[in-house]
Design a protein that fits this description.
single chain, five-stranded antiparallel β-sheet, globular
Length: 235
């Protein structure tokens, strides 16, 4: 009954199917098929955790896998540690090579918790003149990967917004970045390299100042419908 618990499915370079589901601030719930190109057998423990993962001692929401051109799986999701609800979380990602049997170490892509200017003059571009919040989180959309027929084969495109509390109307700073090395390095549209982990403070080149209300996200289709309210932009 909770749409946060949607399932996410991906196929790795060996043809095995990976499924994540039923996670809204829950520990990782994940299974995969044993053999390639068939659903006859699934590998998982009673707790839904398959294979060796860098860490399962965290609560997760929004599992989002992407299959890269070489068959590598790239998985990100919202997590803690600690509070993981809206406006109170980081976004981590793991990778799994095309023929690998385990996942790589977890890396923070978007840092939301404990943004360092707490109590300062406010995040530049925010509608709030004073920053009274201690945490944030990014809402990224599913990365789009260009095909071999596109101008930049393998390039990953991602957009995201920031939120500091539970209210969706407090989304702001719509942002965009791209990566040409499977998510290791991200750049703004003008080629500026973005510091990782990305925060509301260190991604000025990626941001459009103003607020944005994301009305719906098609996670499997790279479609985002949003209303943007800024001084110079109306989308």
């Amino acid at each position: 009954a909770d749409e946060h618990n949607f399932p996410a499915v991906a196929v790795d370079g060996l043809g095995r199917i990976h499924v994540w589901a039923n996670m809204h601030n829950n520990t990782l719930r994940y299974v995969r098929t044993v053999d390639p190109h068939t659903t006859d057998g699934w590998l998982a423990t009673a707790g839904w955790v398959a294979d060796t993962l860098p860490s399962v001692d965290t609560r997760c929401t929004y599992p989002t896998p992407v299959t890269l051109p070489d068959g590598t799986l790239w998985l990100y999701f919202r997590n803690g540690p600690g509070l993981t609800q809206s406006g109170r979380a980081n976004s981590q990602y793991w990778t799994r090579g095309p023929s690998a049997t385990t996942w790589s170490a977890r890396t923070t892509l978007f840092q939301g918790t404990s943004v360092p200017d707490v109590g300062g003059p406010g995040i530049p571009g925010s509608d709030e003149s004073v920053d009274n919040e201690t945490n944030w989180n990014a809402y990224p959309t599913l990365p789009y990967v260009e095909s071999p027929r596109d101008p930049h084969p393998g390039r990953m495109h991602m957009s995201w917004i920031w939120r500091w509390d539970l209210d969706g109307f407090n989304n702001f700073l719509p942002s965009y970045g791209y990566s040409d090395n499977n998510g290791l390095t991200w750049k703004a549209i003008d080629g500026t390299i973005l510091t990782l982990p990305i925060t509301p403070l260190n991604s000025l080149a990626a941001r459009v100042p103003g607020s944005v209300f994301v009305k719906s996200i098609g996670r499997g289709s790279n479609i985002v419908v949003a209303e943007v309210d800024t001084d110079n932009h109306g989308i």
